[in-house]
Amino acid sequence: MDSVTFEPPHLLRPVINLATVFYLQRVVWLYGNYEKLPYKPEIKESKSQAAAPASGFPLGIRTVVKAMYAAKQPFAFKPVNSDQRNRSSRFEPAQISSKVHIEFSRDAAALELTEQADAIAHAAGLQRVGWLFTDIEPDASNPRRYLHKRHAGTYQLRSNEIVLAAELQRLHPNRCDFAASGYAGSKFSTVVLTGNSMEEDNIEATAYQVRLVLVDRLPFF
Q: Which phi-psi region, left, alpha or beta, contains residue 102 (left: φ > 0; alpha: ψ -120 to 50)?
């Protein structure tokens, strides 16, 4: 997977609103489609003319996210004021969150809700293409800025997040007619919504995929 695009861009706004109210990790499923990226190879009409540079990516594929569903999460969080209570009930099922923990509910009711979301997405011509989680924490020195915690000097993903990303890629394999099993690799993406290095309003979405060798070798539960 070469890139992840949200259409329309304001699709992320409800998730950002919730994350900046609770400052606890939220998890959502991403639904959309896959598109081939445009690619033009280098063109040189004659030896005397300079070659036109190539553009795009050969065999590139882009994930286009068009809808989201907030998966039910078994965290014991209780809203502390009416604003938090109203926003929670409006956009997500009841859940408990923490700042460093991600877990999906495995109870029958939660699985049934996810299956219903998958069915609605399928009826709309969409499929589950990834998952997104938030890691947003305010900067005490600037009310319009959020901490830039994930970078080259610290970490990009925590170990438990990598394991979960690998498990989800394993559960969403990519169909391939040339593979003996009919599947090879995965297009399933992990997206993190967190603060960046900008001075204000510094929330951005960054996409990742776990290497296939890790998906094959990790022990899963």
A: beta
- Provide the whole-model pTM: 0.79
Q: What angle do CA 1, 148, 104 make, to 5 degrees?
A: 55
Residue-by-residue pLDDT tens, the chain, 221 positions? 788 999 988 899 888 887 787 677 888 899 999 998 877 666 655 555 555 555 666 778 899 999 998 866 654 444 444 444 444 433 344 445 567 677 776 677 777 888 898 999 999 999 999 999 999 888 888 878 899 999 889 999 988 888 889 888 988 988 888 888 888 889 999 999 998 888 777 899 999 998 877 777 766 54
- Two tokens at 55? 């553009």
d(CA 203, CA 55): 29
C-alpha 3/C-alpha 17 separation (Å) is 24
Task: For residue 5, give both structure tokens.
Answer: 């695009």
Which domains are assigned to the chain? 3-39+52-217 (3.40.140.10)
Q: How many CB atoms lie within 10 A of CB 192?
A: 19
